[in-house]
Structures are given as structure tokens and as C-alpha cells.
Amino acid sequence: MQAEVQAADRMPVCAACHDTGAGGAPRMGRVQDWAPRLKKGMPTLISSVRQGIPGTLMASETCDGCTDAEIKSLIRRLSAPVKP
Ligand code: HEC
Questions:
Q1: 1: CA distance to ligand 1 center in Å?
Q2: Tens digit of pLDDT for each residue in 4-31?
Q3: Which end of the chain has less neighbouring CB within 10 Å, N or C?
Q4: What number of CA atoms fall less than 13 Å from residue 57's CA on the CB side?
Q5: Domain parsing of the chain, residue ranges
Q6: Homologous superfamily of the 2-79 domain (CATH)
Q7: Residues 6 or more apart from 83 whose CB is under 8 A from it?
Q8: Atom of ligand 1 nearest to the CA of 75
Q9: Would you place residue 1 in the very low, low, confident or very high pLDDT band (cuts 50, 70, 90)?
Q10: Which residues' Cβ are closer than 6 Å to ligand 1?
Q11: pLDDT, tens digit, for every residue of 33-45?
């Protein structure tokens, strides 16, 4: 699917912060980091990615040109549990 391909292209951008947890970013695959975020609901998280989170490293232009489906797919990948 097209959306999946483009989301995969963006993944390294997101991972730059979310892999290490730079600036307090919820870390990839860490359930405990993502649980409180996911509770906000997908529409809120999508708008956080679109608008950024003022005062944090999470910038509004991170996913310029992404569709909602792409953003959703990225959030799913970032938050999916990784086995150690
Ligand atoms: C420059 C670093 C950086 C990059 C690049 C980045 N993020 Fe983040 N992200 C953060 C930080 C820091 C937070 C936590 C902000 C806070 O304190 O709430 C965050 C939070 C989030 C959240 C949680 C939002 C919420 O409302 O709780 C989501 C979802 C997210 N990022 C998705 C993404 C996606 C998808 C990408 C790639 C398109 C991305 N981020 C790229 C730093 C980054």
C-alpha cells in the first residue's frame, strides 16, 4: 500500500528522537512510554504530530505532507511493543 511505503520513508526521521527518547520523547517499542500517550486517543496524537507540541522537540513540520493514514501508521510502529 502506498501509505505504508511513505510512512516507512519517514520512520528514520521519527526514530531520530523516538529511538533514543531525546527530549523526553516516548521511546520506540516501550509500552510504558506509550501507554499514557495512547490513552489520549489516536485523533489527539495525530494532531500532536501535525501541530507539534510547543516547548518540546516535537516540531510541527516533522511530517509535512503526511496523510492521517500515514501518521497513524507511524504512531502504530513507534508504539508497537518490541521484544527485548
Ligand atoms: C526532534 C525530535 C523528534 C522528532 C524528529 C519526532 N518526535 Fe515525536 N516527540 C518528540 C518529543 C520530545 C515528544 C514528547 C513531547 C512531550 O513532552 O509531550 C514527542 C511526542 C510524540 C507523540 C506523542 C504526542 C502526544 O500528544 O502525547 C507522538 C504520537 C509522536 N511524537 C510521533 C512522532 C512521529 C510520527 C514522528 C515522525 C514523523 C515524530 N514524532 C518525530 C520528539 C520528536
A1: 24
A2: 777 788 999 999 999 999 999 999 999 9
A3: C
A4: 13
A5: 2-79
A6: Cytochrome c-like domain (1.10.760.10)
A7: none
A8: 35
A9: low
A10: 10, 13-14, 16-18, 22-26, 37, 40, 44-45, 48-49, 53, 56-58, 62-63, 71, 74-75, 78
A11: 999 999 999 999 9
